[in-house]
Amino acid sequence: MDLARAHGLSAQAVRNYEQAGMIPPAARTGSGYRVYTDDHAGALDAYVALVAGYGHRAAGAIMRSVLRGDLPTALAVLDTAHGQLQRDRETVDRLASAAVVLATSTPAAPGPDGPVSVGVLAHRLGVTPATLRKWERAGILAPARSRTARAYSPDDVRDAELAHLLRRGGYLLDRIAAVIEQVHAAGGPGPLAASIDQWRERITARGRAMLNGSARLADYLSFLELNRGDAPVSSDV
């Protein structure tokens, strides 16, 4: 099938996309062959490009909305995805700031060799124990706990110092929690700094793919405004 071959897909994949509503239903010849037109080619081109930028779920929602004439819903899905990309970009910027803070900051006092209590850590940072408990509720800190006390490990102390510095810089607690989570996922401040450029490259690549998908969708919408296509591009059973 020419339509499938042009997009590096199998004929069955195109039939599946048709059945799932990603491309318009194909007309049939008297002998049962599907007839695909420029309409189907444009829809498939848009869908494949959207998948690369937005993922299968969002791309499917966009195309199904477009094909049932519900453009506002399709645009809302695009808006949501772009909003998430911007939030991801902001998170990486915050991580970059955190990496600089971790690399340049000097601890207020020598680091503890073992766990410390909430009172000791609060004194070390110049905050109240209630502040540390608030950070814990926000997901920033997760000290070991017994029935009567909290015990902050050296890693907990590092997280608290980072949180304290970011808080003084105006960061909200939920944003600080996201930074701490990424520090943990990266395996510490050293690997975090090494990962930032890779994260930025992935975000840039996703942004380019989203731009390309939006452009292919815009092409298809322009096509629909003019006509639904008449000339078959391929046929298949």
Describe it.
- The chain is mainly alpha-helical.
- The chain has 2 domains: 120 residues, Multidrug-efflux Transporter Regulator, Chain: A, Domain 2, CATH 1.10.1660; 109 residues, Multidrug-efflux Transporter Regulator, Chain: A, Domain 2.
- The protein has 10 helices and 5 strands.
- The strands form 2 sheets. It has a 3-stranded antiparallel β-sheet. Strands 3-4 form a two-stranded antiparallel sheet.
- About 3% of the residues have low confidence.
What's the gist of this structure?
With 237 residues, the protein is mainly alpha-helical. The protein has helices at 2-6, 11-20, 38-54, 56-67, 71-104, 118-125, 129-137, 154-168, 173-186, 189-226, and strands at residues 27-28, 34-37, 144-145, 150-151, 232-236.
